[in-house]
Amino acid sequence: MARATAPARKALTTAIAGTLAFVMFFPILWIVVLSFKSEVDAIRAPLQVLSSGWTLDSYGAVQERSDYFKHFWNSVIISLGSTFLGLLVAIPAAWAMAFVPGKQTRNVLMWMLSTKMLPPVGVLVPIYLLFINFGLLDTRIGLVVVLMLINLPIIIWMLYTYFREIPGEILEAARMDGASLREEVLYVLTPMALPGIASTILLNVILAWNEAFWTLNLTASRAAPLTAFIASYSSPEGLFYAKLSAASVMAIAPILIMGWFSQKQLVRGLTFGAVK
Amino acid sequence: MATKASRAAARLMISPAVLLLLGWMIVPLSLTVYFSFLRYNLLMPGDNPFVGWENYQWFVTDTSFTAAMVNTLLLVGGVLLITVLGGILFALLLDQPMWGQGVIRIMVIAPFFVMPTVSGLVWKNMFMNPVNGIFGHIAQGLGMAPIDFFSQVPLLSIIGIVSWQWLPFATLILLTALQSLDQEQLEAAEMDGASWPARFWFIMLPHLARAITVVILIQTIFLLSVFAEILVTTNGGPGTATTNLTYLIYVSSLLQYDVGMGSAGGVIAIILANIVAIFLMRMIGKNLDA
Predict the structure, then answer these.
(1) Do residue A259 and residue B269 have CB atoms under 8 angstroms apart?
(2) Biological process GO annotation list (chain B) (predicted)?
């Protein structure tokens, strides 16, 4: 039975937690504010920034000066592409391991996970040289493949933990009722598996969107996604606070929104089911 | 109730994933090991002779290697300390009844979804810049000399930025674990007269121990590979003050084009990460049986 909490105590907790949450969130809030200011106003003292006029100029300028949408589009293609390519390989694998577990299933799963522990920098040189040899440097297809491979273990693991929760008896019941394999997959399995697959897609798009080791090292300009595009602001353009803010807001907004929907899946996905 | 046919089908369904991951692991890994024994620099064409352990000797005896190892240790250790302690506090706080819990929770978790290059640049320019950053403005307002973060306390600044990104992760995991704690057990302890510190120490902390271990291990794997935050803020400097192992390998392979040296560093990084990975895998494996 939940205890009744004294309103005074609840108010105090709310105040403390709210303050801390505000501090954590403040950098994000601040770039949103700066993105609507002129360059001159953006570098003023905080109170002067707040009292200065608002403008949409920076958003237009970012697109005009650096073709923002090209990079945005690259990010979309790379994160969606790598996720769906990964699903294509992962769904059958996770399926088989969840429903037809063999003696080796546990070892295979653990081994797949171990490939995720490989530090990217450990294979930076060979991947870079292979990319040069195959003309993949600064191409989207190259990044799609690499990001698919580094996230594949997470995709398989997430799907596996979701599929394992689907009771096998339901499938048997459907079979007894005379459902064909096609009907079984289409009407029984798919509806039950969809939420898990959706969560997996969500988390992996987020991870691929924010991936900043391979995207920085394997692209120059053509295939550069937003991570690499923002990095180009490191100097001396970083001094243009309003434009940097506008570019940053546009780069993180879609993921922030997706992230809010995926809090629970994040725990499951990133701890490989060790914490639920 | 697996039949022979369904087993064969299962094997067929698993094989693409296994083959892909096998290729992803074996090909680059064996190339890294192979390159690490060659004198191989992209700027110096010609044959690449086998030189034994020479690259390793050069890499390990270089002063920047020692610096990078110390920095890596401080970076990983510092961020772990901040995020685990902070994460426990945040989780305990967010677990209390309050108004607007959903919104507060979302605000705390948000930094985790910010891409590394954005958080690096935003902290560097909008906050830590001594002239135009908020911290600079505050210092001026108080009549103090502003701190030039990236030249005075470069590594600490990086630790701060990375902690901001990972504190939400630790909080989220620990909060999830805390919420699975049996409330009746806590209430029983309270009725028996156990004080809050006693309840925290003897009930909550043991319950959280597993989640804390998972947070430490997973974060360590990711923190060993911190790269973008360093690239956009300090480029590893001043000197080697913020060069971690990952960044050092990046410098020798992609900036100095020294394939042999970079590969030797890569092998060392893999060995280091594997030491952590072994413990992590054991924890996850245990959970798989349960």
Answers:
(1) no
(2) transmembrane transport
Please give the domain boundaries of chain A with CATH numbers for all domains. Answer: 61-270 (1.10.3720.10)
pLDDT at A1: 40
From the CB of residue B185, how many other CB atoms can be counted at a distance below 10 Å?
Answer: 13
B109–A113: do the CB atoms touch at under 8 Å?
Answer: no
Query: Which chain B residues are closer than 8 Å to A234 by Cβ?
Result: 120-121, 124, 231-233
Residues in chain A: 276
Amino acid present at A74: N
Shortest Cα–Cα distance, B74 to chain A (Å): 18
Selecting from B21, B105, B134 the residue whose C-beta is nearest the C-beta of A152 gives B21
* Residue A49 tokens, joined: 């920034």
Which CATH number is associated with domain B53-288? 1.10.3720.10
- Residues A5-25: pLDDT tens digits? 678 888 999 999 999 999 999
Contact (CB<8Å) A27/B245:
no
Mutation for testing the B interface, residue in A125, A146, A155 having most B CBs under 10 Å = A125
Whole-number Cα distances in Å, A57 to A27, A64, A65, A229, A242: 21, 11, 12, 19, 9
Per-residue model confidence (pLDDT) at position B226? 93
* B246–A contact, CB cutoff 8 A: yes
Residues of B with Cβ-Cβ distance to A245 under 8 angstroms = 122, 126
DSSP state for residue A117 in the 8-state scheme: T
Instruction: State chain A's maximal CA–CA distance in angstroms.
Output: 73
Give the pLDDT confidence of A170-198 residue by residue, as tens digits: 877 887 888 777 787 778 877 888 888 88
CB distance from B158 to chain A under 8 Å? no
- The residues of chain A scoring below 70 in pLDDT are 1-5, 236-239, 273-274, 276
Q: CA angle A40-A41-A42, nearest 5°?
A: 95
